[in-house]
Structure to design on (258 residues):
């Protein structure tokens, strides 16, 4: 199985060309689209989505992730073999959260490519091609040379000091729900279900009830809850919290029990 994640969107033909290369090399490949709607050039969001989704795939899956603002530059094309998977993509941190969690075993600088390799579309000419060869049983050492290290991103984290939780907004889903870097174990150190929490960011402050589900609040109410990924989420029941609060990924947050 080959799983694809990109910021290419679906309006253009770029994803189709990647799949065409894969099927040309391995007509029996199984391709799954994780998403192609990562915001353009947003490496961190791409890394986060790959990190949260990879573990649900069967062992042996080959992940091809392409969010690559440095395409054609000196950044390396990577193939990372972990305990259960393979990760292919640019060396800009995109692969790091998922690969490190699954335990990195070998790292390769990919040298294989289509003969007409372009300088602007490595997703097709390098990454899809390498994934297709790998899916046919070609060993990683025939696709590139082993190297010692790769670019790593910092995992989301939060800290508690004097009853205040310092964190970041790390992801906005299509419903406008805001994932924070506050994990379940941290929030339960300062609050319990039905407590009212204060959220500060920029020069704004909001209050929200800490609940278990969206529907436990009336429509339009601001809530915080632990989501399916284990992160504290800020949401509006049947609304869009990101738009209503003016809060986007990357913002610093301070949260405390009111």
């Amino acid at each position: 199985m080959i799983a694809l994640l990109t910021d290419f969107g679906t309006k253009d033909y770029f994803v189709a060309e990647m799949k065409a290369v894969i099927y040309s090399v391995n007509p029996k490949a199984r391709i799954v689209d994780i998403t192609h709607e990562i915001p353009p050039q947003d490496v961190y969001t791409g890394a986060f989505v790959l990190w949260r989704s990879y573990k649900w795939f069967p062992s042996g899956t080959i992940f091809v992730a392409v969010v690559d603002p440095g395409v054609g530059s000196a950044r390396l094309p990577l193939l990372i073999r972990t305990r259960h998977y393979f990760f292919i993509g640019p060396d800009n941190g995109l692969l790091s959260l998922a690969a490190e969690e699954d335990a990195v075993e070998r790292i390769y600088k990919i040298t294989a490519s289509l003969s007409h390799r372009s300088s602007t579309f490595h997703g097709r000419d390098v990454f899809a091609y390498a994934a297709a060869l790998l899916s046919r049983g070609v060993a990683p050492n025939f696709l590139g040379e082993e190297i010692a290290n790769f670019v790593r991103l910092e995992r989301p984290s939060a800290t508690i000091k004097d009853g205040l939780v310092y964190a970041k907004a790390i992801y906005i889903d299509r419903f406008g729900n805001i994932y924070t870097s506050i994990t379940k174990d941290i929030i339960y150190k300062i609050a319990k279900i039905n407590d009212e929490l204060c959220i500060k960011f920029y020069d704004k402050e909001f209050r929200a009830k800490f609940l278990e589900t969206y529907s436990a609040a009336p429509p339009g109410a601001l809530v915080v809850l632990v989501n399916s990924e284990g992160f504290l989420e800020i949401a509006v029941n049947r609304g869009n919290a990101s738009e209503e609060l003016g809060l986007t990924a990357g913002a610093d947050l301070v949260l405390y029990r009111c």
